[in-house]
Amino acid sequence: KIGPMGFPEVAALVGGMGGLCAYKTAQWHSEGLMDWEKATLEHAGGSDVSWAALVALRGGALALILTVVAIIYTNPPLQITGFSTTNGEMKLSLTGIRRFGTFTVWCWMVQGLYFSLALAASLGVSLPQPLIGLQWILFEISLAMALLVTIIVTFVLVPVGLKKGHPVHFMFTWYVLAMHNGNTLMMILELVLNRFDIHAYHYPYVLIYGILYVLFAWTNEKFGVGAFYYFFLDYTRPYAFFAYLGLFTAVSVFYGMAFWIDALFESHRIIGWLLVPASNAIMLWRMPEKN
Questions:
Q1: Calpha distance 203→28 (Å, rounded)
Q2: Integer Cα distance of 81 and 71 in angstroms
Q3: In this predicted model, what pLDDT tens digit does every residue of 206-247 receive, in sequence order?
Q4: Which residues are CB-contacts of 21 (< 8 A; sequence separation ≥ 6)?
C-alpha cells in the first residue's frame, strides 16, 4: 500500500538531485575547478611508492575481478528475498545476467573497469585524456563505494537478514567475500600506491553514480525481476522519501570518508599504511551466530 510519501516524492528527490549534480559539474568545470589537467599518464600509471607493487596489485586485482565475474555468471541460481511494490516480500531466483543487478556487483564491475584502465596506464599504454580523466573518477567512486558496500553489508544487510530469517549464507562464500571485503582492501592499497587523490569538486560524480543505480533498480523492478534487491529502495513504503534521502546522504558521507582517508595518508603516510590492516574492523569474514 502506497504511503503518504510515495513514488512522486521520491522521483522528485532523485530528479532534483540529478539536476543539481549536472548544474554544479558544469559550473565547476567552466570555472576550471575540476583540475582535469592533473590527470596525466604519469598520474594514471605511476607510483610514488613502488611501480612494481602497483602493477602487481592492478594485475592481481583485475584477475580476481574477472574470475569472480565468471563465477557469478556461471553459478547455479542464487535464491534471495526481493521486495516488490505490489506483492511485498518475494523469493527471487537469480541466474546468468540477472546476477549482475545488485549494487555490490555493480561496484565490483566498476572496479574492474578502473583496474583495466589503470593496469594499461601502468604498462605504458598511451591512454587519451578522456580515459585518464575517467580513470580518476572511477578510482574515486570505487574507493567510496567499496567502503559503503563493506560497511552496509557488515552492519546492515547481514544483521537484518539474520534477524528476519533471510538467507545470508551465500554472503560468506569466498567470491562474495572478495566483493564485500576484498573490494575495500584493494582500493585502500591502490590509494596507498597510486598518484591520484580524492578531489573535492568531483563529489557530484559519486552522486550521479548512485542515481544511475536507482534508475536501474526502478527499471529492473518494473520490467526485469519484478522486485528490488534491497528493502530500502521500495518506494511504496511510508518512509521511502527519507530512505532515499538517507541513501544519498550515505553516498555523500562515504565520499567524504574517502576524501578524509586520502588526506590522512598524504599528511601521515605511516598512519595511512595502518589503514590496510585496520580496515578489517569493518569486515565480516564468518557468519555471525544467531542470538
A1: 11
A2: 21
A3: 999 999 999 999 999 999 999 999 888 999 988 899 999 999
A4: 204, 205, 207, 208, 211
Please report the DSSP string for the chain in residue order. Answer: ---SS-HHHHHHHHHHHHHHHHHHHHHHHHTT-S-GGG--HHHHH--SS-HHHHHHHHHHHHHHHHHHHHHHHHSPPEEEEEEETTTEEEEEEE-GGGGGGSHHHHHHHHHHHHHHHHHHHHTT----HHHHHHHHHHHHHHHHHHHHHHHHIIIIIHHHHHHHT---GGGGSHHHHIIIIIHHHHHHHHHHHSS----GGGHHHHHHHHHHHHHHHHHHHHHSSSSBSSGGG-TTSTTHHHHHHHHHHHHHHHHHHHHHHHHHHHH-HHHHHHHHHHGGGG---SPPPP-
Residue with cell 572496479: 111
CA nearest 147: which of 190, 116, 203, 188? 188
| 3-state secondary structure at position 124 | coil
| 152 in Cβ contact with 131 (< 8 Å) | no
Is the confidence at residue 3, as pLDDT, over 70? no
The sign one gets for the Cα dihedral 177, 137, 210, 261 is positive
The predicted-structure confidence for 257-287, as pLDDT tens digits, reads as follows 999 999 988 888 787 778 888 888 999 998 8
Q: Locate 32 and state its grid cell.
A: 576550471
Q: Is the dihedral of CA 181, 278, 114, 119 positive or negative?
A: negative
Nearest-angstrom CA–CA distance, 68 and 187: 17
